[in-house]
Amino acid sequence: MVKYLLVRFLVLVVISSLLSCGGSSGDSGEIGTGGLVEGAPLVLSVDPLANDSAVRADAAILTNFDQVMNAGTADSFVVLGSQSGKLTGSFTGGGTTTLGFDSYNRFKAGEEIDVILTGSLSSAEGRSLGLPVVYRFRTETLSGPGRFV
């Protein structure tokens, strides 16, 4: 629990630093890089969109870059669930401009999902992302009968 709280705190610190460095937390799907490093890969868009509040529980996470990228790893493309902790899954798209993550388990209903693209993510030319990119979305909630006994 302490490790989870520490990770959540660090995520908030990174989000705060990204916003103060010119990163974006808007819902347009354009994330930015939190401060451009010369020649660093640029995130063009993400799916699901940042701050989306009704993402399917089985959705894959896709990130489009302006450069051909090396494959993501559990250390460079980190996905954290507010109820699940660090999620494991398969990484796709190495050698293309679109990297993907597909969780081995479905997201929980109403769960906040944090996506962290760390500085160790790199292009096929060996250029690192530089500063991390962090964004969050929430999964859809399920409907029920709404009856109380």
Strand order of the largest sheet: 1-2-6-5
Structural class: alpha+beta
Radius of gyration: 16 Å
Please state the overall shape, judged from the principal axes of the Cα atoms: elongated
Helix content: 10-25%
**Uncertain stretches of 5 or more adjacent residues:** 9-28
Average pLDDT, rounded to a whole number, is 81
Largest sheet: 4 strands, antiparallel
| N- to C-terminal distance | 34 Å
| Beta-strand fraction estimate | 25-35%
H/E element sequence: HEEEEEEEE
Q: Total helix count?
A: 1
- Quick one: how many beta strands? 8
Helix-strand layout with pairing:
Layout: H1 2-20, E1 43-47, E2 61-69, E3 77-81, E4 85-86, E5 89-92, E6 96-103, E7 112-117, E8 133-138
Antiparallel strand pairs: 1-2, 2-6, 3-4, 3-7, 5-6, 7-8
Describe, in plain words, how this protein is organized in 3D.
This protein has 149 residues and is an alpha+beta fold. Helices cover 13% and strands 30% of the residues. Strands 1-2-6-5 form a four-stranded antiparallel sheet, with no helix packed on it. Strands 4-3-7-8 form a four-stranded antiparallel sheet, covered by helices on one side. A hairpin with a 3-residue loop joins strand 3 and strand 4. It is elongated. The termini are far apart. The relative contact order is 0.22. About 13% of the residues have low confidence.
